[in-house]
Amino acid sequence: MIEEAPQIEHAILEVLDIHKSFGRGNRRTEVLKGLTFNVLEHQVVSLLGANGAGKTTLVNIASTLLLPSSGSVRVCGDDVVRAPRRVRENISLTGQFAAVDGELSGRENLIFFARLHGMGHSQARARADDLLKQFRLADAAAQRVSKYSGGMRRRLDIAASLIVEPRLLFLDEPTTGLDPLSRRELWETVEGLRDRGVAILLTTQYLDEAERLSDDIILIREGRKVLQGPPVDLRQQFGKPVCSITFDSAQEAYRAATELLPGAVALGVEKFTVEGLALSFTAARGADDLTDALDIMRREGVEVQSAALNPPSLDDVFLGMAFTKDEASEASGGPALQEARGES
Fold first, then answer.
1. How far apart are CA 110 and CA 132, in angstroms?
2. What digits encode the pLDDT tens for the residues 62-91?
3. What sequence ranges are listed for the domain ABC transporter (predicted)?
4. Which of 27, 90, 175, 216 matches a 20 to 30 Å C-alpha distance to 160?
5. Is residue 334 over pLDDT 50?
6. 241-310 shares the fold of 9-90+166-239+312-344
7. Is the pLDDT of residue 325 over 60?
């Protein structure tokens, strides 16, 4: 029996040591400071960072809208500076604000974009109808876009980006301002595109969005890559589990937080959070902290209703690395972060 060779995933986007500065002299501001990463086919990579971290600047460079100061970006093997026309044949961009015309209907918008791509009228109309059905907009096809909800308008915007399905799609904070249902619908759309082989570079500030959609997350701060890896790996490497214990009464929870647990798990009183009957704290030693906490409760005769050790949160990783310069600077020298970056 002949075994099939494993499928090799190719890099659709290659970003190598990208720098970008604006202004001159004393007014010169360096926005990107040596970003390096790849996006493979069938992969969603999220750029996660605070406002001003450089996410949109990187997207604009990679989509040929802005020239880098130094470094290189290649899309499907073509350099974005030397061969921008060939690059544009393989990419599509959905920015932070919808590009569709509110005075036109959904179908008219898509036909317009299809005609810009060189399609004849009948082909453009057929492609528009296919996309309207695919993005669940067929019932509103003849309605003016100004009457669309935010979620409908965003789906139409992405549909317009896919008139000719690209090999690489840039989504720059696509769910900003959407209600929870519209966000989830858009997530399903992104997952469907990935399943069809479209590589996606997503910028977002939403941690749940990054964790739901991403094969790889790149956390950037002040134009530098701070962390990179799959969501699960980042949580395990740079986050810490949380121990949660529930008691019969709020008084017992308070007593545990102030008298019993600080000595048992070697944490200050301020490290414990009490909400009603529940107590929680960051368990630096994982299951050992949970075991020690339960042992002291047993010895003191305190009844515990439930106890759990929850996996580390991506929120903790983000808050600890995206905003806190000192913590991130310390971590940048550690071997775990160097491994995540691919450094030796």
1. 9
2. 999 999 999 999 999 999 999 999 999 999
3. 13-247
4. 216
5. no
6. no
7. no
Mean pLDDT, the chain, integer: 85
Q: Which fold has domain 241-310?
A: Alpha-Beta Plaits (3.30.70)
pTM for this one? 0.72
Residue 155: helix, strand or coil by DSSP? helix
Can you read off the two tokens belonging to residue 251? 């008084």
Element (H, E) at 167: none
Please state at what angle helix 121-134 crosses helix 150-161, rounded to 10 degrees. 130
* pLDDT at position 9: 65
Where along the chain do its domains lie?
9-90+166-239+312-344, 241-310
Sign of CA dihedral 112, 114, 120, 121: negative
CB 110 within 8 A of CB 127: yes
Q: Give Cβ neighbours of residue 26 (< 8 Å, ≥ 6 apart).
A: none
| pLDDT recorded at residue 238 | 65
Interacting residues of 62 by C-beta distance below 8 A, sequence separation 6+ = 13, 15, 73, 75, 80, 91, 170, 201
Sign, CA dihedral 72-73-78-83, equals negative
Other residues' Cβ atoms within 10 Å of the Cβ of residue 170: 26
Q: What is the mean pLDDT of residues 189-193?
A: 89
> What is the reported pLDDT for 55?
92
Give CATH superfamily name and number for 9-90+166-239+312-344. P-loop containing nucleotide triphosphate hydrolases (3.40.50.300)
Q: What does the alpha-carbon distance between residue 43 and residue 181 come to, in Å, rounded to a whole number?
A: 24
- Residue ranges in the chain assigned as alpha helix (H): 55-62, 84-88, 106-116, 121-134, 150-161, 180-195, 207-213, 231-238, 250-255, 261-265, 287-300, 314-321, 325-332, 335-341
